[in-house]
Protein: UDP-3-O-acylglucosamine N-acyltransferase
Amino acid sequence: MEFTLDQVASLLNGKVEGDGSKVVNRLDKIQEGKPGGISFLSNEKYENFIYETEASGVIVSENFQARKKIKATLIRVKDAYAGFTQILEAYAQFTKNSKSGIEEPSFIDPSSNIGTNFYRGAFSYIGKNNKIGDNVKIYPNVTIGDNVTIGDNCILHPGVKIANDVVIGSFCEFHSGAVIGSDGFGFAPLEDGTYKAIPQIGNVIIEDHVSIGANSTVDRATMGSTIIRRGAKIDNQVQIAHNVIIGENTVVAAQAGISGSTEIGKNCVIAGKAGIVGHLKIADKTTIGANTGISKSIVEPGQTLLGYMGFDLKLFLKSYAVFKNLPILQDRLRELEKKQ
Amino acid sequence: MEFTLDQVASLLNGKVEGDGSKVVNRLDKIQEGKPGGISFLSNEKYENFIYETEASGVIVSENFQARKKIKATLIRVKDAYAGFTQILEAYAQFTKNSKSGIEEPSFIDPSSNIGTNFYRGAFSYIGKNNKIGDNVKIYPNVTIGDNVTIGDNCILHPGVKIANDVVIGSFCEFHSGAVIGSDGFGFAPLEDGTYKAIPQIGNVIIEDHVSIGANSTVDRATMGSTIIRRGAKIDNQVQIAHNVIIGENTVVAAQAGISGSTEIGKNCVIAGKAGIVGHLKIADKTTIGANTGISKSIVEPGQTLLGYMGFDLKLFLKSYAVFKNLPILQDRLRELEKKQ
Amino acid sequence: MEFTLDQVASLLNGKVEGDGSKVVNRLDKIQEGKPGGISFLSNEKYENFIYETEASGVIVSENFQARKKIKATLIRVKDAYAGFTQILEAYAQFTKNSKSGIEEPSFIDPSSNIGTNFYRGAFSYIGKNNKIGDNVKIYPNVTIGDNVTIGDNCILHPGVKIANDVVIGSFCEFHSGAVIGSDGFGFAPLEDGTYKAIPQIGNVIIEDHVSIGANSTVDRATMGSTIIRRGAKIDNQVQIAHNVIIGENTVVAAQAGISGSTEIGKNCVIAGKAGIVGHLKIADKTTIGANTGISKSIVEPGQTLLGYMGFDLKLFLKSYAVFKNLPILQDRLRELEKKQ
Structure:
């Protein structure tokens, strides 16, 4: 994908200052600009870099006034950041939608339907009785089981596995290696110390605009459904157990884990490596800090928790400050005891 | 899979009350019952739901006495829960065993043997000199290396990877994306600060009735074997390092990690996100709490441990209660010091 | 692979004592030696095992003097450990390089180049405009996107996924299920509580001699590059977020996670389950203990940190020792207060 700076300016309704015939094929940070790249300057803190950058072009705002000579061609637009974002999205859109058609060999059972304008990569597998919408991209080595529903405009990156009976909305994205609908971890202890598997016959429902990160796992419900609601964003290597419900627009960062039957509210933020035990309810707008453990339901919305057994962020930080001083505290206590 | 309620009653030796010709194709929780589903009522706490459920049928115990009118057809059996479990298992059995035969293209080296009644999904790969038993299901995009042994009645879900030399017993299940037999993490530091890989030439042995969760990893031994003993159940995203031994009927929950050469006893329970350092021995029937770190061997069987550097559960909870009060404790100490 | 002990001795310039015609096909630990295996005795602590081992052959040092009768054939070499390592490497080399050629069906776009002496396993996928060096092994069910560069002598184990634009050096190894170049986790919050994906258009650069463990994930940069420098060794299930830089010869153990834009120095050791928040700089030669959380940059090189919010190892251990005594400390404080 190569464009002249004149073409970029035309896309953005911008004005070129300098050589508009230079060709760019890359977006660069201004401090890392190299020939063939286009950057932007929006934050004043980065102004010094514009005098040194080797980027071929830089997008600047209308009212930017240079204090020194600039080697790069400038493209002046109303708002430099918005302009750059526009290119960023055009670029990403172009890249993501570049695949289409069928690569062979790929496998689709004749009982399954797929809409128009799809991509089915080589070695992708689509089992029986699936209903797949329009504009869906199924990358190589993806496996989709039986009786799966997938809405429009979804992207399944290489190696994603969708198990039987999963229901997926529209505009969802599954990153490489994600597993949706694996069996919940349910084993009944028997008297002789062995375990018997409890059949996991529920499914997973994923609503619209959900993103699931690379190598994350979402288990099917024992009965009923594990549900990820509209707009939730799940990072890499997250574990979501059977019968969990993740609320609308809730964000779960990498390596977090949510145990069985827990229900997370709307617009929560769960930071990396956090762990939540099973059968809890977490109120809307709760923020759970990194590596925080939650073992009780959170009833009041809008709290921020931190710690091994998470409690209020500020109180935790105070306790941890004293924890670091504990040996000194102990010495002071001994001194007092001696004086008695 | 559709049945009439009369057919279900016949399977369970039950008695129908109401319309037995209604068709069901789904198992529902009673509080989420919808037409076309069959539920059960066993726990009295849920009795109110039976008067409101929209499930087509509900399995109840012989001695259940309705206090109000019920819309659903009832199936009376000796024990409602046992009856429901029977259907659950029949349902799961039916689903899991529905695949058979060979889907093309799939790959098997002519030097490998596979027993009778198997399923080999499209894009599954079986390398050289493998011995695979009867009733084995190998789902799409599974890769099996060379010199692998797999017993009877095993299930390898989509995208599972079994490396060379792995030995697997019977009735084992591997969930999607699990990796068995990847190289152990062994690097010898050299004088110039670089590292040299130590060849990992051991294997992995997995005994009968073992379950390994989605995207879990079990490394091969440096020499000898990493061993997972009979009946152990491993959840999703668990890491088991080289030369580890997991004892019989030990359960390891999601995102736990066990470092190299550690030996876990029988009938232990290791909760989610727990971490155990290398070269330890953990006694039988040890329970290790969620996100607990273990850095010393556990000699006495039957203990329960919790905490960042895990110790006795009750003592940990007491210490953590004081931890939450540390700022107040510190203030009290200051007060005392002033009075001296 | 079978050899006589005479052949092994010849390889090592060693001297046979006993039956050199015995055939071996396995390397065993001396305490687990079985017929058909060859072991070594280097550490005196293990001497007793040589009198009991059932291994067919044992490599010993020139000056080893047996105190009892030994059943196994001995091979005397200058340094037993070095001799054994030599066999270990020969064995591993032999195993790893045994695959070559093309297995069908596999997929390579005609616009991609691959060097000489390669292995392309069945169901492996190579997209457009890739440049792949010599002696590269691409195992079954690997997916490589578009515009990827891979140097010489790399190994991609089954099910590895390399996304578009990734640049990989020489002598790199990617274990099963690793995902390189998945989208960074970047979402801009909108006023209505929903999130909008920020296009992730950067790439991943992996320098020479890097190893990435099974099911680990390395996200592409938002812009610019996520970089893993020469000689870094990454274990299983590690998460490396967008725009992270891992320094030369840094080792990251299993289930550790490094958040976006953090820069780790050279020759660091990051233990299992450690978590580092985003936008930090970690000095060279820093050691971060297991399950340690790091929320501030580390400026001084060579420190060792431990703890939930990691600080100096020794100070942490002292604080934790007092933490275990907190209930007693609290009682002592109460006693003092009563006496006032």
Observations:
- The first strand of chain C starts at residue 3 and ends at 4.
- Helices of chain C lie at 5-11, 47-50, 80-96, 313-324, 326-339.
